[in-house]
Amino acid sequence: MWPFICQFIEKLFRETIEPAVRGANNHLSTFSFTKIDIGHQPLRINGVKVYTENVDKRQIILDLQISFVGNCEIDLEIKRYFCRAGVKSIQIHGTMRVILEPLIGDMPLIGALSLFFLRKPLLEINWTGLTNLLDVPGLNGLSDTIILDIISNYLVLPNRITVPLVSEVQIAQLRFPIPKGVLRIHFIEAQDLEGKDTYLKGIVKGKSDPYGIIRVGNQIFQSKVIKENLNPKWNEVYEALVYEHPGQELEIELFDEDPDKDDFLGSLMIDLIEVEKERLLDEWFTLDEVSKGKLHLKLEWLTLMPTADNLDKVLTSIRADKDQANDGLSSALLILYLDSARNLPVSYVLRGHPSV
């Protein structure tokens, strides 16, 4: 299947990733792939998990542990600056979810399949000519890691690749499903963090300037920095949409802000199934990958209601908590589907059809 998968990947690069990179930065507006050759080394599937509980009878959910290490030849250019670069090899490792739905009573039995990563995969790219690319005015503040984030985040929830297998399937509902719920994250405080800042050439151990990075799929939040404190209090609130469970997790990493490279202070991974089951969790969690430190979180699972019958009650409770979040807490979710556009003006810059 690999040669045909490569054809699909080339189409994905040109029709999905290329527009995503162009839209990420004004200076990348003329970015394009001039050659895409993924190579002969096929992708490996190291394990498969099939879910049998909490699954709709008209769908099959698979989690694939995928690994790809391959030599490839990918050339790209930014015409505006006459700049070219390339890729010699790519590595990608992560958990890809495949959803087969809806199941139907006629061949091919599956109406469509959807592909996405539950969290950002490990992605490594061996570039050629990247230095020239990053010398472009307006791009010198970028780095290869930012470019990797643009590419990998496009493959992570809520983004998904949906392939219809029969003509009558409702593709829009599969590509843009209604979220399963909203996760309200109260990022409260930490205790007994490691002191990473040192003085007198490392002889004296100091404090840290901790901050947190919170991820749910490709939704990323960053807390404020608390200066010189091993027991910081943030008292911040974030809200994230949850599209898939089982499988999605809340990921938190703590860092010490430094002028050069920020030091790692610990991490945490919480299965959202547990949060949904409990509805409200208010606990101290021990940080992983470090010798000490713990984090105080309050997590609320909010279920979406189809009508506005309880809206007044929700608004009342939110007004009581209005000081918790800088931009206020949410009371309802508006979902807007952009269907189509007509009679768009011709772009005078490109002398052709506009990019939309």
TrEMBL record:
Pfam family name, one: SMP_LBD
- Signal sequence span is none
InterPro entries, from UniProt?
Answer: C2_dom, C2_domain_sf, Ext_Synaptotagmin_C2A, Extended_Synaptotagmin, SMP_LBD, Synaptotagmin_SMP
Q: What is this protein called?
A: ESYT2 protein
The gene behind this protein is Esyt2_1
Q: Kindly state which keywords UniProt assigns to this record, in alphabetical order.
A: Calcium, Cell membrane, Endoplasmic reticulum, Lipid transport, Lipid-binding, Membrane, Metal-binding, Repeat, Transmembrane, Transmembrane helix, Transport
Topological type in the membrane: Peripheral membrane protein; Multi-pass membrane protein
Q: Where in the cell is it found?
A: Cell membrane; Endoplasmic reticulum membrane
